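for the record, two folds in this file. i put them one after another cuz i was lazy. first one right below, seq on top, structure tokens after. the second one comes after a little note so u can tell where it starts
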Amino acid sequence: MSMIEAYPLCWPVGRPRSKIHESARFATGFAKARNKIVSEVSLLGGRDVIISTNIELRRDGLPYATYRTPDDAGVAVYFTYKKRQMCFACDRWRKVEDNMHAINLTISALRGVARWGTGDMMEAAFTGFAALPAPEQTTGRSFWQVLELVGHPGTTLEEARQQYKRLASIRHPDKGGSHSAMAELNAAWQQAQEELQ
């Protein structure tokens, strides 16, 4: 799950996007919804939570105080549950915090299923939330080529991260790119992390 970034949004491959975005009647803010997701996943028994959105974050992982609402309010929550990678994603609502709250409600309902003694149903329900592995990099290009770092042999991991983020803002399907271009970029970023550590 190391290639999943909190920003920009890493929408799960193969998961359809909502065509219509509605106004929600949830009364929640970004910080409250974020904290509730972390709490709900923890209560469920999950760990290593990554909340991916199109809200740019500071180095400490919090959004800038003056962040503007992104055009794409989708949210994807990745975490590990019983050694499996899971993903809940929602983009039905117009605000990021409302999509986060909808994910909170979903996780809370699944925790209820476990509490009420029908855990086998919960395990069956979780099969639909398993995070799909990223497609293999099939172009044969090295991560240096994909991240456009050829000719920069002394590149640090942080410099590669900045280049990844820059290219993701261009290659992401929601920014005019394609799923295959983003998958190749994600695979290159994962390889860069392994080699530049």
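(here's the note) second protein begins now
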Amino acid sequence: MRRLLLPLSLLAACCAALCLGAARADNWPQWRGPNYDGVSKETNVPAEWGEGKNVLWKLKMPGVGSSTPAVWGDRMFLTSADGKDLVLLCVSTAGKELWRAKLGTSDKTAKPDEGNAASPSPSTDGKHVWAFVGSGDLACYDFEG
């Protein structure tokens, strides 16, 4: 396990679950996707969803976080608050939390019910995942945490 931590200062997971189909899709390594334009090449994806409609699974988040997930293969990475801690989560595309790592500590809220220090989105190259959160902490993990 390698970890680099440099002191620089239920919604996201549900959205990720809605975007993932049973078949493996293209990797989405960072916010706005592989081409930095927010456009997916996937076809036949649901145009609407709701309770009992086009939802494969749900995952209870430890707290508030509005990051967009980074997806590589069968793993999704996203940030969340966990009390006053800011954490990076690794979740399988089957909806199971694989690991959780503390990134920093902060209780800053940008807008009530909209953004907090866990809002920045992680990114991955398929071997490592990086997360930079609102506390100013930057971390890099391998896929095993």
